[in-house]
Q: What sequence folds into this?
């Protein structure tokens, strides 16, 4: 599996004129070597050779998990730079083009990766984000099964969170319920949990606070467990009591936009068409001014990854995506509808197939989900 | 408070020849405006004017929390770039030096911040990391109290985790106990939780997995709650049974190194001297080859921030720190001792005072902490 991925990677490197990659983003390293962790790097040649540099403490653990041709442990930052220089020399790379992850490297990390003691002078850095995105975009059968497993854990987390919603309970306590349930169900971790209530449901990134939920508040919950290195993405909005008629109508509109877009999923569909459809339903319902953020994104090792709709992709350092291929996994509903005093969002993770789709995050989509709310 | 911080910031900008800052790092924006969140920016002029750009959804929420002279909401990435251009024009900045956070901005984000439609051509970008680090390094009385509150929550999380340690329990389940307890105790969130057991205690960044703890395993737990926007850092290593004589002796050595270094904390002490002392105790005990990572770092809005010892500071894009000033808060013991088959680490958050220190994370430091372990 790793070998096939490496082959694809090398052929894309050739096309893009990249002689060697120097990866530091854990998700990319995991995909191409079987292990991804902080403070490590993977150098990958166009010939498919993999050289790893890891903290000296981690050598045995990485050896157990990763595919590689060479591995070296370093003691500190200077050691890391020298080990990179060593690999350039070992592979005989004195000039050419070096692929770096421009969407991951900070300016400071960039300074280390292209340090004059590491990189030969005639080796020129260039962004390689699109190569990794291209090969990770279409999922293998085993990856789909892992995302399906993560989706099941996400549903358990959502259920625990929804059951925790009640007047007087803090947003953070609702998040606690979701996170605890996800770890109990097999998650090794999770990406940030969002829980926002009342007026905070109108905020784009509603990280939980100690705000206490009030009776009849809307509560927006968005969770992303990590299970066996893969993720899933689900969002639900529920009411801690009785929604107003306007809230119910707005929720119904958003759900129509989201579900209608999901129904359009199949190989060959264009991301732009999907985004336009979702937005059009909102516009037709009088909420054209209440849109924010990419409504659709990929899900895999990361809960938010390529593909993104073209406009967003550009600013996130990604290329505009091709028409959907079978076995892309997409979260639909990421944008939300922000009405001003409150907002609603419903998001699901979906497996795109040749002739249709399967929603992996099946959980009720109702503002008033069960008796203990309200 | 915010006004005093802005004054200090402006005088450091003047010294460094920076005409304007364009901040996107949430911790820095929080410090200078009272609100920090993703996908927003703060432009700060040398005259102390603050202009914010936030998602249109977030305008009301930010207005409620932040200090600013101007605020604008944008709809998408293009709108964000245009709003930056607007502020450059509004402040009459056509040339000069623009401070950007090189330790935070990825290459892709850098492209947006310096987009030709945003930044006037004659405005030159330069790193401003050291300015924010310098003003955030010495804590105000209220900041110390917030870190103290976070430390109390960290201790509760640690206690819950230690009590969850038992043979057959997964690392992730131990993390769940810590995280749930921290949210229950008032945390709005937390930085990543580390739980590593058995051979994984030798790994530099031991994120939890589904490995089941075995009888007599060492278990390393490191937690960092966020309480009222401030953090604390505590690590303990415990044994799920009876440690070997070698494990106990190694633990005692590391604890001696860590506690001896803490006892040297006071205004005027040099970070390099502290690091050397901690390392020397390990070397004298025969563990000179088992050191990895910066042994000391600052704690505040982030669980790991400036100051760092000089060598590490350089590679993290920071300047070498001055001798300690009163009211710096430091975590001591971050490096750990990695013996090969296992490792040990004990870390505490300490308030540096004019004549000494106070440890804020008081929790027993024993390999066998209580009866239910083993």
A:
């Amino acid at each position: 599996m790793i070998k096939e991925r490496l082959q694809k990677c090398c052929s894309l490197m050739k096309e893009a004129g990249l002689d060697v990659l120097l990866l530091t983003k854990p998700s990319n390293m995991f995909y191409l070597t079987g292990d991804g962790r902080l403070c490590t790097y993977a150098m990958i040649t166009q010939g498919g050779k993999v050289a790893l540099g890891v903290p000296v403490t981690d050598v045995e653990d990485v050896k157990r998990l990763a595919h590689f041709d060479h591995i070296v442990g370093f003691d500190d930052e200077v050691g890391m730079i020298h080990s990179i220089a060593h690999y350039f020399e070992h592979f005989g790379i004195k000039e050419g083009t070096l692929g770096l992850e421009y969407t991951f490297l900070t300016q400071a990390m960039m300074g280390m990766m292209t340090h004059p003691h590491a990189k030969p002078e005639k080796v020129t850095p260039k962004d390689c984000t699109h190569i990794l995105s291209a090969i990770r975009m279409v999922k293998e059968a085993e990856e789909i099964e892992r995302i399906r497993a993560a989706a099941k854990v996400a549903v358990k987390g959502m259920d625990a969170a929804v059951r925790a919603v009640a007047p007087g309970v803090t947003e953070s306590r609702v998040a606690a319920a979701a996170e605890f349930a996800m770890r109990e169900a097999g998650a090794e971790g999770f990406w940030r949990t969002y829980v926002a209530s009342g007026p905070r449901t109108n905020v784009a990134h509603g990280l939980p606070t100690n705000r206490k939920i009030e009776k009849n508040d809307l509560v927006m919950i968005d969770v992303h467990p990590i299970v066996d290195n893969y993720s899933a993405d689900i969002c639900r909005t529920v009411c801690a009591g009785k929604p107003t008629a306007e809230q119910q109508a707005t929720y119904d509109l958003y759900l129509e936009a989201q579900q209608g877009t999901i129904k359009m999923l199949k190989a060959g569909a264009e991301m732009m068409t999907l985004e336009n459809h979702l937005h059009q339903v909102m516009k037709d319902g009088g909420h054209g001014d209440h849109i924010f953020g990419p409504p659709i994104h990929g899900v895999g090792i990361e809960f938010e990854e390529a593909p993104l709709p073209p406009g967003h992709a550009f600013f996130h350092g990604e290329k505009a995506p091709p028409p959907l291929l079978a076995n892309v996994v997409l979260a639909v509903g990421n944008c939300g509808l922000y009405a001003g005093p409150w907002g609603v969002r419903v998001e699901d993770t979906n497996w795109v197939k040749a002739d249709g789709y399967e929603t992996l995050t099946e959980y009720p989509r109702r503002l008033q989900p069960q008796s203990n709310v309200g």
